[in-house]
Design a protein that fits this description.
This is ABC transporter permease subunit. Keywords: Cell membrane, Membrane, Transmembrane, Transmembrane helix, Transport. With 275 residues, the protein is mainly alpha-helical. The chain folds into 2 domains: 40 residues, no CATH class; 221 residues, MetI-like (MetI-like fold), CATH 1.10.3720.10. The chain has 13 helices and no strands. The two termini are 38 Å apart.
Amino acid sequence: MLILVCLVMLYPVLFVFGRSVMTDLDRAAHPFAIWPTAWDISGYKYVFSSGSYIVNAYAITILRTIAGTFCNMLFTAALAFVLSNRDYPLRGAFTMLIAFTMWFGGGLIPMFLLVKSLGLYNHFAVLILPGLISAWNMLILRNFFMQIPQGVIESAKMDGASELVIFLRIILPLSTAALATISLFYAVGHWNSWFDAMIYVNDRDLWPVQVFLREIIHNTNLNDMIRSDAVVEVNPPAQSVIMATIVVTTLPILCVYPFLQRYFVKGITVGSIKG
């Protein structure tokens, strides 16, 4: 049964990779094949050509994922630590206010007007700042921090440790599983995100790679991926470019996930216990 499940999971991955290196004739003759009879990497050459937007978009996506995940974890962990303190009088009120945002929001138009009024429109920071703290992830971290024995924190206070020292040298080292899990959530979210860039960014040089992937899938127009002043010898088949773009946008997450998988179940299980 598990082997069957694994095959079901692996087939789409191998299918996309195989189609990205097939010729048009091979794809037409073998519509369900996952391994090419003749290799054609023109799609990858086109994606990573010197005049392609994808190379710059790939850099934007990597920078967004690294910087965004770091900022997300910094502010989410800090807020979760404050709200996990049982002696903080406003802990319950702030927790309810933050949880309220999980069910009710201001809407797209007010958010767009707010972004423009703050000067974030068409700026790289708009990809990070509006979603700086996720209420769901913060609550998971808060509940995880509350499972740490209070005796450890009280003994540190008796030794003269400040709140910052407790946070950096006690709370964070004891929360590796939860931090790795939430980091994975944020990183995957940043890597796959495209809607915010499509709404708030008009400059194609600031588009992440997922926006270009959406453009070529919906429009099947390869010219949208190449700068107007670039010279391309031959345009490869559109299907090759689409599949190649899917592969290069998915591969980094597939490579990172196995190293964080061992923290995943533990972080979610412990962090979901009610405090």
